[in-house]
């Protein structure tokens, strides 16, 4: 066994897993607060990455200005979607709401094809290009720096939810909407906040992933791949999203390296099936018991 | 730049509205004979739309051009198409609809999946000859697909041309090594088995095979595998852009002096436009001259003039455009030969006319006279990216496989 190779592969997988965790965070935040599975999360990622392309490539702004602008654009998009399309669906069947998010995904694909055509795109280079070595282990620079940025934002998120008023309101709403409402928390605003923050995480992840692998109107499919992460970790668990993101990223990469690229997805779905059998609510998800 | 993106988008949208009518008809000509119909299932939306819009432009422009030349033996040409979204079921539906309403003599299929799915019906109808976006090796099986052809070399033949070029760079006993990197799709896997056989026959060692998802994926682990085997050449297949760029950039960052090559859909100018300097040295096999190459010829000049006339702002026309034009050119040649022989335009007669093509001068679209073998045109040339010039330049002679 070539341990150096295994170490390098594992490092690459964990770094990619960090980005999966960031996308998963977008899923979880929205689900946790509003009980909506947002199937348009991948397309929100894609939209933000195209905004970055317009700002950094088209308008030739510095990437470090373009990135927050694009992330802001993606977050606003999330907020607008919630207010105009999801809120009117409150009280409707979950399937209807899911169908709305699928419809939104389709609309976003059409919008980017209209403005940027269906051509595949590459984002302007903005991450350092010098190879990164951790001891003897090589790590591709885009993945390494993408991971660092993603990890920094994850830490900020965790601090926000732990200590800020907004974060506490969101957690309170997630655990009991009626109680939160009776305590004077503006639950509708919290719903909107969850969409904004969820979209923010997804937007940042979208830019970092597109910087690594390129961009096209079909980019949003990555969002669906990350659904595996969320289900394994637990749909309503931020900790689950982080741990499952890292694990699935590592597993995918190791399976691809040792078994071949065609076994990346089957490996993750085997894990998904096993987890669903053992813990249907995910590794860290809430096991809801309904008493009648 | 944003303005340029927006205007490009609007141009595409303009094209979209044109297509909204779903039918593109040739200019009305002062011709009395019945029109000959070119049908098409065209992917103007969906994952293949980046090429579909250009294929469509090539077919449309050729139709206008041939009508301006008096049509085919006096018959005006009518091009009827529908957008398929690159979905087999929609392509099949489009085929049935167009076949029912317009009885096309020839038809453009948008994918290998569609062309395979429709083959039984096509064979039983016996009225239509088909080609399209696919260069699939399987479609050159004349027993199963007698009425379908490939408008260039099939993917295995493309690998054959690439491997012949690689072999020509080595010497006996010291052949370069090669790695195949392909997408985990039917398209990606198409030439791999034949490629390995051909490499073995030429004494080239295939030191690694990498399979990835198509499109936007992280390939750093795959690059680490390649670093260990240090291939002299990496041949990509089944991609358009990503992840080719990441393989090239990361392997060069590691100090490897590997050379990179790709097949038809991986050899568009898109690679240069998007990768910039990083694309320098990338090589592709291409059966047609590039739109902006130094080559000339009566048909190539006519193509450029028609392209300029139909959209003066478009500038460079991608390989999809050349492919669309060449498809229609072959259809015309086949129909002409069939009519000249006094035969009916049946699939069987047209397939026989196609098989009779030998040393055909394509007027500069392909640089040498071409001969049809097993319903394909097994010819191509290796082109290398000159990033400074922003274009591909030929680095081999035309290679015509037997």
Quaternary status of these chains?
heterodimer
Q: Approximately how much beta-strand content do the residues of chain B carry?
A: 15-25%
* Residue share in helix of chain A: over 70%
- What is the residue-averaged pLDDT of chain B? 91
Number of continuous helical runs of chain A:
11
| Strand composition percent of chain A | under 5%
Task: Quote the CATH topology of the largest domain in chain B.
Answer: Rossmann fold
Structure annotation, total helices of chain B: 14
What letter string, H or E per element, gives the SSE order of chain A?
HHHHEEHHHHHHH
What's the mean pLDDT score of chain A? 91
Low-confidence stretches of chain B: 1-30
Number of domains of chain A: 2
How many structural domains does the protein architecture of chain B include? 2
Sheet with the most strands of chain A?
A: 2 strands, antiparallel
Number of beta strands of chain B: 12
Taking all Cα atoms into account, the compactness measure Rg of chain A is 19 Å
* Measured distance between first and last alpha carbons of chain B: 47 Å
Shape of chain A: globular
Uncertain stretches of 5 or more adjacent residues of chain A: none
- What is the second-level CATH architecture of the largest domain in chain B? 3-Layer(aba) Sandwich
């Amino acid at each position: 066994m070539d341990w150096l190779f295994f170490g390098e592969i594992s490092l690459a997988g964990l770094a990619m897993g960090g980005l999966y965790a960031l996308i998963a965070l977008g899923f979880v935040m929205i689900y946790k607060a509003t009980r909506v599975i947002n199937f348009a999360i991948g397309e929100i990622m894609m939209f933000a990455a195209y905004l970055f392309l317009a700002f950094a490539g088209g308008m030739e702004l510095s990437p470090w200005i373009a990135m927050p602008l694009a992330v802001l654009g993606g977050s606003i998009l999330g907020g607008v979607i919630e207010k105009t399309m999801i809120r009117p669906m409150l009280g409707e069947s979950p399937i209807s709401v899911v169908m709305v998010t699928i419809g939104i995904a389709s609309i976003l694909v059409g919008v980017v094809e209209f403005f940027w055509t269906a051509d595949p795109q590459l984002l302007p280079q903005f991450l350092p290009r010098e190879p990164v070595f951790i001891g003897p282990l090589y790590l591709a620079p885009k993945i390494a720096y993408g991971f660092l940025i993603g990890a920094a934002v994850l830490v900020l998120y965790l601090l926000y939810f732990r200590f800020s008023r907004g974060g506490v309101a969101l957690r309170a709403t997630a655990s009991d909407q009626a109680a939160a409402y009776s305590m004077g928390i503006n639950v509708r605003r919290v719903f909107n906040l969850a969409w904004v923050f969820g979209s923010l995480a997804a937007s940042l992840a979208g830019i970092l992933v597109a910087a690594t692998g390129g961009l096209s109107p079909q980019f949003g499919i990555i969002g669906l791949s990350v659904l595996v992460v969320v289900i394994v970790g637990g749909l309503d668990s931020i900790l689950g999203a982080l741990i499952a993101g890292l694990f699935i990223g590592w597993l995918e990469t190791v399976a691809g390296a040792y078994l071949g690229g065609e076994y990346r997805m089957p490996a993750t779905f085997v894990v998904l099936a096993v987890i669903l059998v053992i813990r249907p609510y995910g590794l860290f998800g809430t096991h809801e018991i309904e008493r009648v | 730049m944003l303005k340029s993106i927006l205007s490009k988008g609007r141009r595409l949208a303009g094209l979209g509205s044109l297509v909204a009518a779903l039918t593109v008809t040739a200019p009305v000509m002062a011709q009395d004979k019945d029109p000959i119909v070119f049908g098409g299932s065209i992917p103007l939306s969906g994952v293949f739309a980046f090429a579909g819009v250009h294929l469509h432009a090539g077919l449309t422009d050729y139709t206008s051009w041939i009508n301006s030349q008096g049509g085919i033996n006096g018959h005006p040409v009518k091009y009827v198409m529908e957008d398929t979204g690159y979905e087999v079921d929609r392509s099949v539906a489009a085929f049935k609809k167009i076949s029912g309403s317009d009885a096309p003599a020839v038809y453009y299929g948008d994918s290998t999946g569609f062309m395979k799915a429709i083959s039984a019906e096509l064979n039983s109808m016996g009225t239509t000859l088909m080609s399209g976006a696919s260069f699939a090796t399987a479609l050159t099986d004349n027993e199963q697909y007698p009425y379908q052809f490939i408008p260039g070399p099939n993917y295995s033949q493309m690998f054959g041309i690439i491997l012949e070029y690689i072999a020509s760079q080595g010497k006996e006993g010291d052949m370069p090594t090669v790695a195949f990197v392909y997408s985990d799709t039917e398209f990606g896997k198409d030439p791999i088995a034949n490629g390995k056989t051909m490499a073995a026959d030429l004494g080239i060692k295939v030191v690694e095979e990498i399979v990835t998802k198509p499109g936007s994926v992280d390939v750093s682990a795959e690059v680490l595998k390649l670093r260990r085997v240090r291939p002299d050449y990496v041949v990509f297949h089944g991609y358009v852009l990503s992840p080719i760029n990441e393989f090239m950039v990361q392997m060069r960052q590691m100090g490897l002096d590997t050379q990179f090559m790709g097949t038809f859909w991986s050899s568009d100018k898109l690679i240069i436009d998007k990768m910039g300097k990083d694309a320098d040295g990338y090589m592709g096999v291409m059966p047609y001259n590039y739109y902006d190459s130094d080559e000339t010829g009566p048909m190539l000049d006519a193509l450029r003039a028609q392209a300029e006339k139909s959209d003066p702002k478009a500038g460079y026309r991608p390989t999809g455009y050349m492919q669309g034009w060449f498809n229609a050119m072959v259809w015309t040649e086949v129909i002409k030969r069939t009519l000249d022989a006094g035969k009916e335009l049946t699939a069987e007669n047209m397939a026989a006319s196609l098989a009779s093509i030998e040393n055909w001068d394509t007027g500069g679209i392909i640089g040498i006279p071409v001969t049809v073998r097993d319903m394909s045109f097994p010819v191509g040339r290796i082109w290398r990216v000159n990033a400074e010039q922003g274009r591909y330049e030929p680095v081999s002679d035309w290679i015509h496989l037997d």
